[in-house]
Design goal:
The complex is a heterodimer of chains A (298) and B (437). Chain A has 298 residues and is of the alpha+beta class. Among the domains of chain A are: 99 residues, Immunoglobulin-like (Sandwich), CATH 2.60.40.1940; 98 residues, Immunoglobulins (Immunoglobulin-like, Sandwich). Chain A is built from 2 helices and 16 strands. In chain A, the strands form 3 sheets. In chain A, strands 1, 2, 3, 6, 12, 13, 15 and 16 form an 8-stranded mixed β-sheet that branches. Chain A is flat. The two termini of chain A are 46 Å apart. Chain B has 437 residues and is mainly alpha-helical. In chain B, helix 3 runs antiparallel to helix 8 and helix 10 packs parallel to helix 13. The two termini of chain B are 34 Å apart. The chains are: A alpha+beta (298), B mainly alpha (437). At the A-B interface, helix 1 and helix 2 of A face helix 6, helix 8, helix 12 and helix 13 of B.
Chain lengths: 298, 437
């Protein structure tokens, strides 16, 4: 009995020492608390006369943000004292609700500005929250031309005046990007002139797809008046991508065949092992055969 | 059948013919634990791996720890039984069957944890269809499947004579289907000189093969880790280190199994202190080797002072302080003291040391897998900070418990099918208190 007690106490001490460091502590849940919702609202004016409205809805736990999934966010356009509904969107797993709105449907104010509002009405568990953003619609167009064998990327910026007419967007800085695998690669920066135009000598060493196709993005970022404006276009001015083709098979998983030494080693080992297995099974088979001709003498 | 074998079978007959009330309670308890595991598994399948502690950064958790642990125990069983057989060790007969059972049962349970860890089981067949020989994962799949076949053949050869004994022992009160099963499995073995020679030849060959395969397969498992450049894994001694750790944990499991079956089936006459001391001495030697490898591995990492190795060692001595101490200090020193000092060398003490060794070696695998994944070279994009910390959940612990329960259940059922101690060629101990050293 004493020995068993000794064993139990020892194991209990081990468990007390180990359990806290290996297991997930049960979170204390208080269902009666209403959690405060937070909303960040962003907007991008695109080159196809539309705006992308993105609302990110989240709550905070110990200062870390957690996106709220499956929540309905309403988008509105503010006209004087009236709120004109633009549509609703449901948040994804990161808490993002995205709505695309055609600019022609929106009525700018006298100063040409439009106020966008996103609103989450709340639930019994989460508080309601809303955010707004004011910007003047603008547009960036990208065109390409070749002059004396030099490739040029041209950017034209326009905005709509109070009468709804397109006029040049002047003296704004435009950043030029090419999307890469994980992020955007900045290839240049230009300033729009009095006519809303800028030109950029296109680099010759940017790798595209196998046909040399590239996607070019022109952006005005975090502008006080225009917010985020973006224009995109495709061109086959990239260096065609050459897929790596190993001359000698190596350890990389994408090589078509394993190194010869590896194949030979594997074959020898497997053949050696399975040959012995076969021999053992053969002996078992012969034991069975022997039983048919021998008298039992066990 | 020799008279002493008949006598032995008579003694083992009750455990094979009947199951006591305590036996049924034990089986029911094990089934309940397995049932809990099934419930946890359903939760995991329906809700996804979000119910586990595994996230984008720490993609391997205690499922992989259990996989390595069970595979290690299995290889240890193969190594111990193969070595004891080849060297014709005098005291092997009462314990060799248990070592063989440990091999097979662990080998059946271990790979199940890989299946639990995989998120897309529906694409599992891609491993075969699109497997690349260059991939260590493919090496492991080939090695484990080869090992399973080899161990089954070895076990079958080892139990063949006892299957024939069971077939020929008419006093055994068993249902007809079981008698027929013994007859079919015995392959008509009657113990003729020719059959004995064939059986001996095949068993010797397979004993050699299981030793070689056990070393290769567990080394392959170690290479899955060591061929990466991850801190804590990229080590040239990982292969032999894993093999030593495996045999060490297996010797401890064997001691616990010996203690358990000795108590339950009253095998005090056959499994004596001599056997505990003998396996305990194996455990002692392995403890010294394990301690040496562990020290060597961490010393070179610490002295080298590479940035990520330093971070890992800091993590081990701070966040994982107690698991690290128990795994690498208590788990090494306790068996050295208990088995090394003659006065402490009792059956209970050796068994207790073995239990601590099992826990220590499980923690050793935990410390190999988790802290390394918690200190990655590159942060993952859009990853939440809490995803870089692993904390296991009840689902994982339930499935871990279910695996252990399944191990015990299969062991129990196997002991109901064939005597847990080798009957063929075995004799009763003339002096149960005879001690090796």
């Amino acid at each position: 009995m004493k020995k068993h007690l000794y064993l139990i106490i020892s194991l209990a001490i081990l468990a007390v020492l180990l359990v806290p460091s290996l297991t997930r502590a049960e979170e204390k849940k208080d269902s009666s608390t209403i959690l405060e919702s937070h909303l960040t609202f962003s907007y991008v004016c695109t080159s196809n006369d539309s705006v992308n409205l993105t609302a990110n809805l989240y709550i905070k736990k110990e200062s870390d943000p957690y996106g709220l999934m499956n929540a309905t966010v309403g988008f509105f356009c503010k006209e004087e004292n009236a709120m004109i509904p633009l549509g609703t969107a449901v948040t994804d797993q990161d808490g993002n609700a995205v709505l695309n709105v055609v600019i022609s449907k929106l009525r700018p104010g006298k100063d040409g500005m439009i106020t966008y509002v996103s609103r989450f009405d709340g639930t019994p568990k989460y508080t309601s929250v809303s955010e707004s953003f004011t910007a003047e619609p603008a547009k960036l167009r990208i065109t390409f031309n070749v002059q004396d064998s030099i490739r040029y990327l041209n950017v034209t910026g326009t905005r709509k005046d109070a009468k709804g007419q397109e006029v040049a967007l002047t003296k704004e800085t435009v950043l030029l990007y090419v999307p890469r695998l994980f992020s955007l690669l900045k290839i240049g920066e230009v300033a729009l002139d009095e006519e809303g135009k800028a030109s950029f000598e296109f680099p010759n060493d940017i790798v595209g797809d196998t046909l040399g196709n590239l996607k070019i993005i022109a952006k005005i970022e975090e502008n006080d008046k225009y917010g985020f404006v973006q224009g995109t276009s495709n061109i086959n001015w990239g260096v065609p991508k050459q897929y790596y083709k190993a001359e000698v098979p190596s350890r990389e998983l994408w090589t078509p065949i394993a190194p010869l030494w590896m194949i030979i080693t594997l074959v020898i080992m497997l053949a050696g092992v399975w040959a012995h297995y076969m021999y053992a099974v053969w002996e078992l088979f012969m034991i069975k055969m022997d039983s048919k001709k021998d008298k039992p003498t066990l | 059948m020799e008279n002493n074998e008949k006598q032995l079978l008579k003694e083992f007959a009750p455990q094979i013919e009947r199951t006591s009330v305590q036996g049924y309670v034990w089986i029911l308890f094990l089934l309940s634990v397995i049932g809990l595991g099934v419930y946890a598994f359903i939760q995991q399948v329906t809700k996804g791996h979000i119910v586990t502690g595994m996230r984008d950064n720490v993609v391997w958790g205690i499922y992989i720890v259990n996989f390595i642990f069970f595979m290690g125990v299995s290889y240890a069983g193969a190594l111990i039984s193969g070595t004891l057989h080849l060297f014709k060790t005098a005291w092997r007969k009462p314990v060799i069957r248990m070592a063989e059972f440990i091999t097979i049962i662990s080998l059946l349970i271990g790979p199940c944890y890989i299946l639990l860890c995989i998120g897309r089981l529906d694409k599992l067949h891609y491993l075969v269809l699109h497997g690349r020989i260059q991939s260590p994962i493919t090496w492991d799949v080939i090695a484990i499947s080869t090992d399973i076949f080899g161990c089954f053949i070895f076990l079958y050869l080892a139990v063949l004579r006892d299957l024939a004994n069971m077939r020929d022992f008419e006093e055994l009160q068993l249902p007809k289907w079981r008698k027929k099963l013994y007859k079919a499995l015995a392959l008509g073995y009657t113990g003729t000189e020719e059959q004995k020679k064939r059986l001996e030849r095949a068993t010797n060959i397979m004993a050699t093969m299981v030793i070689a395969i056990a070393i290769i397969v567990y080394s392959v498992l170690a290479w899955i880790f060591s061929v990466t450049l991850q801190p804590g894994w990229h080590s040239t001694i990982f292969g032999p280190y894993f093999v030593i750790a495996a045999v060490y944990s297996g010797s401890a499991v064997l001691i616990v199994a010996m203690w358990f079956f000795r108590k339950v089936y009253h095998l005090e006459q056959y499994i004596t202190k001599k056997h505990f001391v003998a396996v305990g001495l194996i455990m002692l030697v392995l403890a010294a080797f394990f301690g040496y490898f562990t020290f060597s591995d961490y010393l070179t990492k610490w002295y080298g002072s590479e940035k990520n190795d330093e971070l890992l060692i800091q993590l081990l001595f701070k966040e994982f302080y107690w698991p690290f101490i128990i795994s690498n200090y208590v788990g090494v020193l306790l068996p050295l003291l208990v088995v090394g000092i003659a006065k402490l060398r009792t059956i209970t003490n050796i068994t207790l040391a073995a239990v601590v060794v099992i826990i220590a070696l499980w923690l050793n695998r935990y410390l190999i897998v988790i802290p390394t994944l918690q200190s990655p070279y590159l942060p993952i994009q859009d990853s939440r900070p809490e995803w870089s910390i692993y904390q296991s959940t009840w689902v994982e612990w339930s499935l871990t418990a279910a695996g252990i329960a399944m191990f015990c259940l299969l062991f129990t059922l196997a002991s109901k099918f064939i005597p847990i101690v080798n009957v063929a060629g075995n004799t009763q101990e003339s002096n149960p208190d005879d001690v090796l050293v």
